[in-house]
Amino acid sequence: AENQIFLILLLAFGSAATFMFWGKWLGKLSGIAGHPRNQEVSVHKSEWISIILMAVLFILCCVFLPFISQFIVEEYLFSVFGVFVLGITSDNLWIASIILVFIIIVLFAGLGKGKARKVDVYMAGVGIDNKDRTFQSSLSKEITATSRNWYMESYFGESKLSPFGTFICSAIIVLGFIAAAVMTVGIV
């Protein structure tokens, strides 16, 4: 279990990709939309249900992490390896859960209370039309504020990555079949 370098690489890559996804998602949520139409009107109810369900399950998993760790993860690790060494103590997991509950209460306590005062949006320039989100830039040009992604298609586009990814995945599948055939022949 100590020489699992491939597993560590998978965990590191997965964590980085997940962090990037959630960071981008949070940026989109907290950003100002570049168009005046209300996106929430066009979201289907099934999408709202799935988003709310995922959020609630995520919060419940975080709050009940000490239980999940003790009764599922530790039991599984002990049954597989016969020994279990605590990385994080149960007390620290409980402290983290209590802090999370406090943060959730603070974040959502004022949700839906009162009417917020509407103010003009500051866009690092002289505002021209707040409704259309246009402003005068530092070069005296009229610019419409937008929120979009930078995908770097010339470097990371599907046409660039697909052949490489197809080759690597095909090689892994072929190696898997070869390893399975060798192990099957070796067992029989």
Q: SSE string, helix = H, strand = E?
A: HHHHEEEHH
Shape: flat
- Name the helicity range: 55-70%
Q: Provide a count of the helices.
A: 6
Radius of gyration: 25 Å
The rounded distance between the terminal residues' Cα atoms is 27 Å
The protein's oligomeric status is single chain
Low-confidence stretches: none
What topology does this entry show?
Blueprint: H1 5-30, H2 45-63, H3 65-81, H4 90-108, E1 126-129, E2 134-136, E3 142-144, H5 153-156, H6 158-187
Antiparallel strand pairs: 1-2, 2-3
Helix pairs in contact: 3-4
What descriptors fit this protein?
single chain, 188 residues, mainly alpha, three-stranded antiparallel sheet, 5% strand, flat
Any overview of this molecule?
This protein is mainly α and 188 residues long. The chain has helices at 5-30, 45-63, 65-81, 90-108, 153-156, 158-187; strands spanning 126-129, 134-136, 142-144. The protein has a three-stranded antiparallel beta sheet, with no helix packed on it. Helix 3 packs antiparallel against helix 4 (90-108). The longest helix has 30 residues, at 158-187.
